[in-house]
Amino acid sequence: MSIRAWYSSGTPFVWLTAGAVSISVIMVVGLLLMILARGLGHFWPAELHLIEYRNADGETQTLLGEIRESEQVPAVRVREAGYPLPDDAPELVTRHLFKVGNRDLYGFDFRSVVGLGITGESLPAGATAIERRTWGNFYGFPVRLEQGGEVIAEGDAVWEKLPPLVERAHALHEEIRDLEQRQIGAINYEQERVRLAERRLELEGIDDPAARQEIAESRAALQARFEALQARLAELREQEARDTLVMRSADGREVPVALANLVRIYRPNTMGVMEKLGFYGSRLWEFVSDEPREANTEGGIFPAIFGTVMMVLIMSVLVTPMGVVAAVYLREYARQGPVTRLIRIAVNNLAGVPSIVYGVFGLGFFVYFLGGNIDRLFFPEALPAPTFGTPGILWASLTLAILTLPVVIVSTEEGLARIPRSIREGSLALGATKAETLWRTVLPMASPAMMTGLILAVARAAGEVAPLMLVGVVKLAPSLPLDGNFPFLHLERKFMHLGFHIYDVGFQSPNVEAARPLVYATSFILVLVIVVLNLTAIAIRNHLREKYRALEG
């Protein structure tokens, strides 16, 4: 075959397309692997290095911590940073990012360590890492264990007494958390509802002694329950403050660490492979199931996962009927002419509008106009505090529904256009009305196309951040939109989102070095959530496609 014939056959374009797709797939897989390695590798227990280090002033310091990163940098840059290097130093010098922890002692978590300045290094077996709920990690050596101010163990005996006390501290913490967030939170919620009921009677001018008596009795009962829980909470906090572990830092200072502030304690230099795997699994589970702490740089991201999934589900419930109804009208009922073509052009152009514009629209129309009027009509007793007239998950979902609406309309229209006209005519010939034909025959056959539009909508909506910053997402939400308080689903509440969490941790964190691995880990979780949502929609679409393939044939 000649080159001209080969070129005319289209084979070069096939290979070119296949090569472009292969390169794209390799790039995507490489990006995911990089995110996976940098993010999930953060949870592996790193060894604790004890080093003797000569600082820029020539003083020798003893440091204990983790070597997070090592890089080769030009010696001239090290000299410019103020560290004196000998004249015979190599052109490239090793520099370590050393996590020293102990923020309450040093005021920082990380410091740069020049490799030439290390005069001694070891991996002491007794080096201990403590993850704390506040002040970050502590690295040091256990000295003694105190209970109520009395010493109950010293030296190596600390590890024999410590495990049951740690379990006790965790149990007390969980009970306190349950009291504060669930039981006392529920009482506060009910007290607010009683206050609003009383305010409603005042606004309506109703002087009902029986109603006021009922409100007073409810308030008294709630107050009695609240005082009982407060007494129990004070008792638990007193028990929680009983146990203290005294640690010695690398520079010899003794620091008391309350077991109530302890998340986990471990000696990474003595852990075996199986112990490290178990530790890795527990930290990874904490990351996806717990709440964030320390300005979102530690702890978990469960509220962000929950908020992202709930927002996408609410958005899907809202955008699907709107998009399908609009597509059915344009394809099945609207007279095809210049006006209809103009509407289609407008719908296609809406898909290219920047997402922040939708956020401004959602803030102005949904939050201020619609939500403000809802407050004045249905929640006057709560004013001037807004109920729906403030950003929340409902308005965020509606904003993203409007943002993704063009995708669903176009996909549904294409699905309706692919259905043969003979099927419609056959249904009408058998005596079905146009509405029955549409509802029982056309729409079920077009459902795979609807699901395709929904898949594209979910993929875009789950990763959007800019509009959400205006209509409901926050750095830290004290309570989830779904809880045990009536009406259980609180659409007016603000929520956390994985995309905004990535932005906040990556660009607004006061501790950039500590936050960097969490940016990668959260990015991987966001991709994983989007993939799971899309795979679920794809499975539904494939099921519908197989179900109606016989009719299409």
Task: Provide a quick synopsis of the model.
The protein is an alpha+beta fold and 553 residues long. The chain contains 16 helices and 13 strands. The protein has three domains: 34-131 and 264-285, no CATH class; 149-241; 305-497, MetI-like fold (Orthogonal Bundle), CATH 1.10.3720.
Structure description:
- By secondary structure, the chain is α+β, with helices and mostly antiparallel strands.
- The chain has three domains: 120 residues, no CATH class; 93 residues; 193 residues, MetI-like (MetI-like fold, Orthogonal Bundle).
- The chain is 60% helix and 14% strand.
- It contains 16 helices and 13 strands.
- Strands 6, 7, 8, 9, 10 and 11 form a six-stranded antiparallel sheet that branches. Strands 4-3-2-1-5 form a five-stranded antiparallel sheet.
- Helix 10 crosses helix 11 and helix 13 packs antiparallel against helix 16.
- The longest helix is centred in the first third of the chain and has 47 residues.
- The protein is flat and about 90 Å long.
- The mean pLDDT is 88.
Task: List key phrases describing it.
alpha+beta; MetI-like fold; 553 residues; 14% strand; 6-stranded antiparallel sheet
Q: What percentage of the residues does DSSP assign to strands (E)? A: 5-15%
CATH topology-level fold name of the largest domain: MetI-like fold
Low-confidence stretches: none
Class by helix and strand content? Answer: alpha+beta
Order of helices and strands: HHEEHEHEEEEEHHEEEHEEHHHHHHHHH
Architecture of the largest domain, CATH level 2? Orthogonal Bundle
In DSSP terms, counting alpha (H) and pi (I) runs of 4 or more, how many helices? 16
What would you call the shape? flat
Radius of gyration: 31 Å
Total DSSP E strands:
13
Mean pLDDT: 88
Q: Please give the largest β-sheet.
A: 6 strands, antiparallel
The CATH H-level superfamily of the largest domain is MetI-like
What level of helicity do the residues show? Answer: 55-70%
Number of domains: 3
